[in-house]
Amino acid sequence: MSAPPSSWIRNAWYVAATPDELTDKPLGRQICGEPMAFFRDAAGQAHAVEDFCPHRGARLSLGFLRDGHLVCGYHGLAMGCDGRAVGMPSQNVERFPRIRAFPVVERHGFIWVWPGDAEAAQGTEPPRLAWAEDPNWAYGGGFFHVRSDYRLMIDNLMDLTHETYVHAGSIGQKEIDEAPVETHLDGGEVVTSRRMTGIHAPPFWRMALRGAGLDENALVDRWQICRFSPPGHVMIEVGVALAGHGGYDAPAALKASSIVVDFMTPETETSHWYFWGMARGFAPDDEALTASIRDGQRGIFSEDLAVLEAQQANLLRHPDRGLLKLNIDAGGVHSRRIIERAVAAEQIATRERRPG
Amino acid sequence: MSAPPSSWIRNAWYVAATPDELTDKPLGRQICGEPMAFFRDAAGQAHAVEDFCPHRGARLSLGFLRDGHLVCGYHGLAMGCDGRAVGMPSQNVERFPRIRAFPVVERHGFIWVWPGDAEAAQGTEPPRLAWAEDPNWAYGGGFFHVRSDYRLMIDNLMDLTHETYVHAGSIGQKEIDEAPVETHLDGGEVVTSRRMTGIHAPPFWRMALRGAGLDENALVDRWQICRFSPPGHVMIEVGVALAGHGGYDAPAALKASSIVVDFMTPETETSHWYFWGMARGFAPDDEALTASIRDGQRGIFSEDLAVLEAQQANLLRHPDRGLLKLNIDAGGVHSRRIIERAVAAEQIATRERRPG
Amino acid sequence: MSAPPSSWIRNAWYVAATPDELTDKPLGRQICGEPMAFFRDAAGQAHAVEDFCPHRGARLSLGFLRDGHLVCGYHGLAMGCDGRAVGMPSQNVERFPRIRAFPVVERHGFIWVWPGDAEAAQGTEPPRLAWAEDPNWAYGGGFFHVRSDYRLMIDNLMDLTHETYVHAGSIGQKEIDEAPVETHLDGGEVVTSRRMTGIHAPPFWRMALRGAGLDENALVDRWQICRFSPPGHVMIEVGVALAGHGGYDAPAALKASSIVVDFMTPETETSHWYFWGMARGFAPDDEALTASIRDGQRGIFSEDLAVLEAQQANLLRHPDRGLLKLNIDAGGVHSRRIIERAVAAEQIATRERRPG
């Protein structure tokens, strides 16, 4: 096990995969610096262990599943979900070294993993996502592998000014960066929001207005309320209402709204898994609409990738160059501060547990 | 010349290439950390020199052959097989620095090279391969570049348990890892063997039984006798006999047998050239059978590559994690010990030769 | 800003791009270790600034042009040609940190940049290229990215012996490396030349003879006069004249001649941009001939790339191995010496400017 990393919280639930990724084969994926082998047991329950066979170091995720165990594809060691070998042909595995097992739960349409100390996970559970439990809501999404620090994506999402530039052809519009931005702390979360009144809807929202049975050409009030919560989640309430009816607080029949869902899961210090999607409170059974929105988001969010990966390369090149922290950057700045404090607290706790 | 490496024997004959690779053009290949340029002289004899032109450092293997010399493709320096420049337009090459020449012999259908001290090669020759000199035997083979320490391939071949898992669709079968394995030292070699009695032949051996005119559905006795010899060779006697006729010692008419030929030649500390093939004592003139077996082996052995390359990456990530040394691993463990002792002896000899 | 590099002159004009590369989009290119964003202002004038947005470190060259400014594609910061931010939505940019701007001029069909201290560029200008100002001359060329130290290309061009080997099928011929080579210093330049008399023209020059209306089968006198000037330019006067009429000094009607134009611009210590072309004093309006020569040069010069990139890899592997400095190498040796002296002088000047 390597030294505690400095840029992510270890003791927390991260989205590791989507349920459809765990089929009748194991899945190898590195989360927070830990190569993990994910698999389902005979009852379909998801598990994760180190992706390292205690026999000869083969990758367990290249193996196969048998009777609910993960069988190494090299010499047949069968690994249980607790990191203990449960069998191997002609061998007594009782004294084989144990490998790490990581707490895993499947909830709200995601596979969640806890990369830190397993004991610390006891009694905790992944965040509740109200829309995931509500039959009046629908969700569609996907994920990307991004070669940048996951915090650059948090910065990105906590400052939607970039939509005007990066997403000029879809959700961006000039009014975004002209609208004042407001940031505040809400418990252990960061909220940054923008409201625009009496504007024309950009292409993406015109489609949403049509989908909600409203006039796509009408003037609208638009809002963006970004909420960061640790370890790396950003939920963005977004929507438009026919102008002059209260905006965010307008009656449901006069608005189209949804939640942009973003889970950033570190892979290494300079790469992450970006799980993105949209939850919407209208037309939940319209699967064609779900597919259409997902395709739209995939196209829009892929525009961020080139920008962030080039930014990451630039920052690695100039590690000591200070960046500006403008008012529009406050969301990201506060989010990073919350992460930093939690990481520091974990490191102090780790040191205290070690014999001196 | 770099410091003596720690993981391979320098003063030994390694397979460097197959004869058909040395045509009317030179061949560049790194062996035991040394970039070499191989070429044939006017009489067709194979040679190897450093792949570094003493004039300006160009790669000699990018040049061409003329009058039995290797001519640098940059400015025309002609290199002789002893590492001395033999000519260059308008230049007197007598005092040009000499580059290293490596002892090379062509024997038994392979080009062999001695990457260590040339004087130490005098009076030695590559191992005798009896089947290569016997007209009643046929050989077919090929080679792979593998991104792993060559010793991981030796481990692999000295523990055929893996066939049950890695090669489940061809030569693997459940009975292999259920059969007891026996390992012993035989002079400077390691022998590890398994015998299975009264089993059904797996697909590869069914084909061999057919090829030998025997009933592919009959019960058979099967054997695998792996023999490691330094610096990195593993010969495996394999075969099946109709059950109850003595197995390995059964009359020739009642069995199909062959030798799996494996030469592992280090390229770097974490990569090697893997020359593989099969020598068989039946139907030596059946070229279609030779091609069929070669194609089969190529498919089977390529299954090992992904496993070994992932294992290598895992081991680099966890350099201090001890691996298990089970009874099935004894063949590899003893083989590595032989290599380690030989390497240590070479290093002591090198230090003693140095003044001071 | 990194420490002064040791292998290139900083305070000098380098070719950075061709004018057609600067269109309505910015261009990102690293020159002498400095990532630069090139762009044209509203009047079409070329500029270069650091490729690093002072807001969050995004690459400015991924942005777009608006009103003569370079607008960052992430959050809309508008950068002026002097490295000062000129605007950003809802922000006061007056106190934003300035980034470096590099002196740029467009002249003689090239975009030139000065990667060193901007003040030192004042009053200087790129070298005059007489042929570029003469309507009786035509130019055609292109460029390559080469993974080698730019000085290996200078060596290459200052010793045309290599043509016999690398370009055997086009401009190379046996007589080149049989002809004596003469090298001398001419002010701050190095001149190395070869003259061949009464020879048959090689394929490229047969084409040129035809193009000039001369007998391609006649015996010719041939010359190659290579002239290096710092920081990394090599102009080569080349030509053939009908034999016995004075060679280089023969009447214009009896010869075909041209100038091989080579600008080497470092990217990193082990890579460079190679701008190559040919200026000719005949048939200046024959665009088909220009295209034909350019295609021929592209093919010929691409043959050098594999040689130089392999040479670079060999030299990195053997950093302490001395290379030969033969008479044919004198051109490169003297050119490197001029560069080394200029680099040393720059470093002394830099140290003296620093408070101490």
From TrEMBL, chains A, B, C:
Keywords in UniProt for this one?
A: 2Fe-2S, Dioxygenase, Iron, Iron-sulfur, Metal-binding, Oxidoreductase
Please indicate if the UniProt record lists Iron-sulfur as a keyword: yes
Task: Name the Gene3D superfamilies on file.
Answer: Naphthalene 1,2-dioxygenase Alpha Subunit, Chain A, domain 1, Rieske [2Fe-2S] iron-sulphur domain
Rieske domain sequence ranges: 13-113
Task: Recall the GO molecular function terms of this protein's record.
Answer: dioxygenase activity
In terms of Pfam families, this protein maps to: Rieske (PF00355), VanA_C (PF19112)
Question: What CDD domains does UniProt report for this protein, alphabetically?
Answer: RHO_alpha_C_DMO-like
Q: Does the keyword Transferase apply?
A: no
Q: Which InterPro entries match?
A: Cholesterol_7-desaturase, Rieske_2Fe-2S, Rieske_2Fe-2S_sf, VanA_C_cat
- Which spans of this chain does the record mark as coiled coil? none
Stated name of the protein: Aromatic ring-hydroxylating dioxygenase subunit alpha
